[in-house]
Structures are given as structure tokens and as C-alpha cells.
Amino acid sequence: MSTPNRVYIARLAGVAVFDPNGDQVGRVRDAVARMRPNQRPPEVVGLVAEMPMRRRIFLSINRITSIDPDAVVLGSGTLNLRRFSKRPNELLVLAELLDRRVQLEDGPSGSVVDVAMECGRTGEWTLTRVAVREQTGRLTRRGHLHQVEWDRVRGLGGVGDSRGTANLLAVLEDMRPADLANALQDLPDARRNEVAAALDDERLADVLSELPERDQVEILAALDRERAADVLEEMDPDDAADLLNELPPPEQDVLLDLMEPDEADPVRQLLRYASGTAGSVMTSEPVILPPDATVAEALARIREPQLSPAVAAQVFVARSPLTTPTGRYLGMVHFQRLLREPPADLLGGVVVNDIDPLRPTSPLPEITRRMATYDLVAMPVVDRNNRLVGAVTVDDVLDHSLPRDWRNRDAMPAPATPSQETLDRDHG
User: Fold this and answer.
1) What is the C-alpha to C-alpha distance for residues 139 and 295, in angstroms, rounded to an integer?
2) Could you tell me which residue ranges the CBS domain spans (predicted)?
3) What would the pLDDT profile of 108-132 be if each residue is shown by its tens digit?
4) DSSP single-letter state for residue 173
């Protein structure tokens, strides 16, 4: 195996995994070690890689031909796509050891910031060294970093009673919200809630929107109510409404009362619509501009980074007021049309209104048919007075058309045919 003799695992997080042909098949997310008796250092049996569609699979250490800071390369053979599931005698190194509070033999206490694996003469990889940051008791000073042998650290064998989150968050910080949500599902519930609570409000709001409903509710319930209300304020109103719909009405009312009125009002409005209708799946904050706004102003508005691609794909034009429910709805302009028009032209001169808007009571099958018929990524929703009350985007339609548990990775089918890699893990 053409690879360094010692590899620090936290530095592998996010590194691309390539097959023998040079095609990327995923990214490293963790390492799997098998616990052994008599305090022997755990044997590293493989890596966990994240594939497209957020599927995590096991890569046997015997299949890996090289490891370096930029790439992990696999040898020939069939890749087993069965979803990874940790076994009772196994340890996920990053998820379970980073930030663990430990005691150095004849030395100070501290927290784990990295773990090294080494390849011995027989080709067996084991966890051999631990990087531990000494606790100083002072907020403004970082403690000394110790790199010591595995058997000189006390507190690695059992479940840690007290762990921080800083080092694990550092590993996860560059992940997209959907990938971070996927990583949280691999953690024990208590650890998942601890890590989620350490995220800032905006980041946690983004991650919650990507989690299954059960996990959303459990994480929200683990927060104090004031913090939970702050996180709900950071979510898009439609996502916040979907989450609150999973809670009992009394709890909904408590959280809505704790939110700022201007953040709670659109969520309350969405909660009034029947499930499975345009009103229940729409966003109440599309891009809305008056007819006397210029094309240049519209382009500047849709460039705002917080807008999702589906919301930024078009501008809705309405009379004042411009917050939903607006004044009279006039039509919409797709961003491609904006790119073709002179920047000084007014939106009122390029607006399109040849497609009938949806009503809040329009059922989901009708919305799907109409969006597919006209190749739209969003459709306006107007009330009986022709006031714009929101817009249904294609991601809203997909989210509510798929099974309720589609975000739950355990509910997704996986190939069940064993490969040599499975046999290696079972009997290696």
C-alpha cells in the first residue's frame, strides 16, 4: 500500500475517494475501528465514505491502495453499495472520540482533537496515537497539545460522560446542510442533540430543514424554548410551519408566541391551510417587486445569496404593499428574460401573465401537473382578491410528493448482494 505509515484521521474527513479508473465515488466521512480485548489498540477495519444521494457505505481497509491528504484510492473489485451500519464492537473514530474528555497517564486531562492510525509490518492498521489538547481553565488561552500513545490515555474505552463539540464541529463545518444533517443521523441521539445545540441559529435552521421530521422534533425539544423560537425564526416560513405541524397545538402556540411577531405571522398564516394544498406547501416570501422597478434592480435582488435557486429563478410583480398578501398581482418575470432585457427597462413592460395562478386550495396533484405542463420551477399563489400570498417552488412539490420518511436514510432501499468487501468485514 503506497501510503504514509501514520495517518491522522480528522485530516481525512472530506477527502475524495477514487476508483482505479480515477473516477470519484465519494468522500471520506469517518474511520471504523474494531475494539479488542486486553486494552489492545483498536484495529482499523475500514473507512466510511459518503456517496451521491447521501448514502454512506463501508470501504474495507484491504480495498484501499493509497491514502494521502488529497485522495483515497481504491483497488480493483466490486464496490459494495450496502448502507453502512455500525456493529456493536465497532467504533466510529471521529463521531465517538473527537472532543472526548480523557486523562493522560501521569499527566493532565484534556480533550481529544485527533487520532492517528498506523500500518504495521503485517499490513494491519491500528489506532496508535491520540492528539489531546490540555485543559487550561482559561478561555483566552489554548492548552498544550500532547501526542501520546493510545495506551497512555485513560477514558477512550467507554462512552464519554462529558464531551465538548468544538473539534467535531471543525470537521463538519464545511459540509453542506444536507450532508451535515446526514452526518448527524449517524450519531447517538444524545450526541446528535449536543452537536446540533452547538450550531449557531442560522446553521441549525438550515440543517433542521434537511432532517427527517422525527429528528427535527427531537432536536427542537432538546433546546430550551427561547432558543427553539430563535431557530424557527431563522427557518423559511414554510419549513418552520412544516416543523410546527409535527408538534401538539399547545406547543405550537407557545413557540409562536416566543417568536418575533413579524417572523411568526407568516408561519401562523401557513398553518391555517389544509395539508396537501398550495397554501400548505408554498413559501410566503418569494421575490416581489413593483412594476416600476427596473430590470437592473430585479437582477440585483435575485443575486442575494440567501435566496434558494428555485426562489431566485423568477421575480413576481405586484402592486404595493409588496409583502404577502400583496396588492394586485400582475405577473412574473423569469431570470432568463431579465438577462435579455436592457437594464433600465421597467418590469411592468416585460411581465408575463399568460398562466393562471394557483389558489391556496389547489391540491398537490394539480400543482404538479401544471408545473410539469409549463416547465416551471415556481408558480404564484393568489387569493380571491388576486393578491399574491406566496409561491410554490419545485423543491416544495418534490418535498411533499415523496414519502414522508424520504429524508430518513434507513428507509431507503439498498443493494443486498454481498461482495468480497462484506466478507472481509464479517470474517477479517
Assistant:
1) 51
2) 282-350, 351-411
3) 889 999 999 999 888 899 999 999 9
4) T
How many angstroms separate the Cα of 113 from the Cα of each of 11, 127, 136, 173? 11, 14, 15, 15
Reported confidence tier of residue 415, pLDDT bands at 50, 70, 90:
very low
Of 186-200, 216-230, 233-247, 323-337, the least confident:
186-200
Q: What are 31's strand-pairing partners? A: 47
CATH superfamily of 6-91: PRC-barrel domain (2.30.30.240)
The C-alpha cell that represents 327 in the structure block: 396588492
| Per-domain residue ranges of the chain | 6-91, 95-154, 177-272, 288-401
Q: Which helix (H) or strand (E) holds 367?
A: helix 364-374
Distance separating alpha carbons of residues 394 and 210, to the nearest angstrom: 16
Side-chain-facing half-sphere of 247: CA atoms under 13 Å: 23
Nearest to 269 by CA among 192, 325, 231: 325
Q: How far apart are CA 225 and CA 253, in angstroms?
A: 12
Q: Which phi and psi (to 5°) does residue 160 adopt?
A: -70, 135
Q: Which residue has the cell 449557531?
A: 200
Please say if the pLDDT value at position 140 is more than 50. Answer: no
What are the residues whose beta carbons fall under 8 Å from the beta carbon of 393, sequence distance 6 or more? 283, 308, 310, 311, 377, 378
Residue 374, φ and ψ in degrees, nearest 5 = -100, 5
Q: Which CATH class is domain 288-401?
A: alpha beta
Interval 59-103: pLDDT, tens: 999 899 999 888 999 988 777 788 888 887 888 999 889 999 999
Rounded distance between C-alpha atoms, residue 237 and residue 210, angstroms:
15
Q: What are phi and psi of 341, to 5 degrees?
A: -100, 155
Contacts of 120 (CB under 8 A, 6+ apart): 126
User: Pick the residue with more confidence: 173 or 131?
Assistant: 131
Indicate the CATH number for domain 177-272: 1.25.60.10
Question: Would you state the pLDDT for residue 351?
Answer: 95
